[in-house]
Amino acid sequence: MLRLGIDASNLREGGGTTHLVELLEAVEPGEHGIDQIMVWGAQKTLGCLPPKTWLIPQTDHLLDQSLPARIYWQKFKLSKEAQQNCDILFVPGGSYTASFRPYVSMNQNMLPFEKREYLRFGVSWMTLKMALLRFSQTATFRGADGTIYLTEYARAVVQEQVKPWMGEYVTIPHGINPVFRLAPRPALPIDCYSQTSPFRLLYVSTIFPYKHQWSVTKAVHELRQKGFWVELDLVGSAYLPSLHRFQKVVRQIDPDGNFIHYHGVIPYSELHLWYHRADGFIFASSCESFSLTLLEAMASGLPIACSNRGPMPEILGEAGFYFDPERIESITQALDCMIRDSVSRENHARLAYTRAQIYSWERCARETLNFIAYIARKEGVF
User: pTM for this structure?
Assistant: First the structure.
């Protein structure tokens, strides 16, 4: 039987942690010849993992500290731990500096590989961090025995930049928690909405420069000036400089908070309720490896206005009202089309909902462990 180790030292919150939790909840390791999975991570991360008899959580005081401390742990302590406790290592965080082999890496962050996007942060620690991540993740992918991508878009972009490419690779998309699934509702004509019962547009994402929340806000303002009773709800954490920029725009166009509402971080256990209360969804990111929130909106039966960049068309297909996220007039036009035409809105929502059915965490878990077991056999440890 195979012993699998997972280095979760770089997973703190967001999509990476969600992926790990859902993967371990859905997986049946015995079906892949695996009798033990050991996970190294911070106490907060380990506290989110499901209780399983085959799951062994491990922590270290360094893993609850800052990034330099976690890098030190990975570089100088992980190899010894892995040598004693596992046959193959899975590194979903994307950066790996230890010497233990074999290992399977995973690309979950496109920002380090799209320089134009991370330069939006200007002269900042975030820009430096992305440049350093580009270096570390390039080395990680080059040295990996296998690498998992979330979309074909991400695979093509990363492999073009990470040369020479030596290891095996596979594309395995994320799944969707069934709690988000809700069949599309009948679409009402726009004149059915009013000041007291507005069309509620939802945007779930961290406020970052490449997410373009301020442009979405301006587009919604233009729709209000056209006479549409539409309100925007924004959910997610925020990068402080971007939050200040967003708040400045809101103060200019909606100082009384009549139609722009920022709600901050919502617990994951409550997030599906926000999708189910919404009338439409918007996603304006220009840089993603995969968008879990876009998939959540699709599974929630919502009509979606979506950025035409990155992997979004690959995920959403023909079910989106697409726009250029850097042009406010393009965002406005897509939203106008979605909101004004109720028939098209309902058809697009049904297409998105149907498309979302192919995504599941069970499929993701099965294909992930199949690939890891394949690499273990190829490297002679299984």
Answer: 0.94
